[in-house]
Design goal:
The chain has about 210 residues and is mostly helical. About 65% of the residues lie in helices and about 0% in strands. Helix 7 packs antiparallel against helix 9 and helix 7 packs across helix 10. The two termini are about 20 Å apart.
């Protein structure tokens, strides 16, 4: 996925002065976004999804978010934004529930993922664009997961439930912060895009060939 990250960034550099940073990032990350959606959808929207496959997805997401949250925590502005938005505790709760209550065996949680270093706060903002945007799609996944009889509506599904009814409000708050940052740093668009593409690449690599 590394070459895809570079390619997606290069072909959109000419648009980096676009004033609507949200639209710019959404459009420019579409290829990698679609790739990750297909990887997740192939498992999570399968009516015959097994408990083990679901656990593997959760572990892959835990690995991804652990690295990404560590990266964005290195900068004051994004560290402050992360307060109240960390997903790691939810993932740990879901994984523990499946492993204990559903008697699902552990999966490999040490898969190596090549995380490109985040070098500045603009790239960290871009990484958070993906981390926060995922909560919006999580609402659709949450509805699909509830159809499985082996999933407890109150446990094992916390990550995809995310902010619940507040997901729209939390997303709007993040987008407002992103726009304010970009308005004060008008040359930051390319780095924001790089951070977002890196996040999608990290998640895609973590998911690998889970089925």
């Amino acid at each position: 996925m590394d070459s895809a990250v570079l390619h997606a960034t290069d072909i959109n550099t000419k648009d980096s002065s676009q004033s609507n940073i949200h639209t710019f990032i959404k459009k420019s990350t579409d290829p990698l976004h679609s790739c990750v959606e297909k990887q997740l959808g192939a498992v999570l929207f399968d009516k015959n999804m097994t408990q083990q496959s679901y656990l593997n997805i959760l572990i892959a997401m835990r690995n991804s978010y652990s690295m990404m949250e560590h990266s964005v925590s290195a900068y004051g502005a994004t560290q402050q934004l992360l307060v109240g938005r960390s997903k790691l505790e939810w993932l740990e709760q879901d994984i523990a529930y499946l492993q204990a209550s559903q008697k699902v065996p552990s999966a490999n949680s040490n898969k190596h993922v090549d995380l490109n270093n985040i070098h500045n706060v603009s790239q960290a903002f871009g990484m958070m664009y993906v981390m926060e945007g995922a909560t919006m799609g999580g609402g659709h996944i949450f509805k699909a997961l509830k159809k499985h009889s082996w999933i407890n509506e109150l446990e094992g599904i916390r990550f995809f439930y995310s902010y619940g009814e507040l997901r729209g409000e939390k997303w709007a708050q993040y987008i407002q912060a992103l726009k304010q940052y970009h308005n004060h740093n008008p040359n930051s668009a390319d780095d924001i895009l790089l951070g977002a593409n890196t996040a999608f690449s990290v998640i895609s690599q973590s998911l690998g060939d889970i089925n």
